[in-house]
Hints:
The chain is α/β, with parallel strands linked by helices.
Amino acid sequence: IGNTLACLSPPAYRTDEGQPWVLPVVKKVEKLIVADNRLNHEYLPILGLPEFRSSASKIALGEDSPAIQENRVGAVQCLGGTGALKMGAEFLRRWYNGNDNMKTPVYVSAPTWENHNSVFANAGFEDVRPYKYWDAEKRGLDLAGFLGDLETAPKHSIFVLHACAHNPTGTDPTHMEWTQVAEVMKRRKLFVFFDSAYQGFASGCLDKDAWAVRYFVTQGFEMFCAQSFSKNFGLYNERVGNLTIVARDADNVRRVLSQMEKIVRVTWSNPPSQGARLVAITLNTAELFAEWKDNVKTMADRVLLMRASLQAKLQALGTPGTWDHITQQIGMFSFTGLNPKQVEYMIKERSIYLMASGRINMCGLTTKNIDYVAKSIHETVVN
Ligand code: PMP
């Protein structure tokens, strides 16, 4: 768009210069891969690079996860987080809880990343429904609504939960709220399917961002966790994802993986190697792992800084309303609370581009455009 003064809906992380960022650790590991004469372009195993799958599951579940120690964790290397959701959905439609799985309700948050609906519908689920999540008025979690939907969902329904940095609202349950969610899900025998697309992006700390996933494991759930390395490694076009499977015992993992092999075979047959190799080398080499965590923190910190600056500027301008939700929300996205008319003003009058829902990607803000954006928000709210 020729005269864009600020694009607040870039599809990915951007630096303060508005540019894509190749993580320094990724550049380093790419050189190691090129220099390694032992590597070739043979097919990978159907389920993917073993050292990638195990290390990816480890960062989701934790180094000392009891489930890993008990050999009841398996993984499938997938094409991005989307691929991991797809593999999980295809498996569940074929094998979860009886023969009539097309009818099993799949619940996704209202609102959610819109592809959730289509991925599950395309896998053959006929009943993909929303569960209450966002309270527009209080600009926060609708916990009572969420728990209510868990209580009334048919037993064995599948619930897609955002592990952290909920897209698009930037609002996650607190630890206390997660424990309430887990309690109902366990009692009502609901299936937990985590989508972890932003680990590290919410707080800057991998372990903190995996709290919910790990808590559910301690509560004895069998579950799937779709992991994406698109954002936290900046490897968007390499399609690196992992489906972590936590099962009751080692025998169940083996059975699930043997069916997964069949599904992969008819879907992409073999996964691509470059991105998975990059991630595996990084996660399995202490110095590179430390450097990666530092790189992730750089991205998370920039987002936090933009949140704090935007909120401070709106407060300084005396913009009507409260803007605490800007700093309370986490991850890349924010629901600003701007209504469609205000969004239209921003686009038409100020050449600032954002979603009609009022969602912005915080990475679209830079030290150069933030004053202009804050003033424009002020104007549209006052007018
Ligand atoms: N889940 C959520 C919540 C997302 O926001 C995204 C990407 N926007 C994905 C999954 C998919 O990630 P990937 O690009 O790795 O397929």
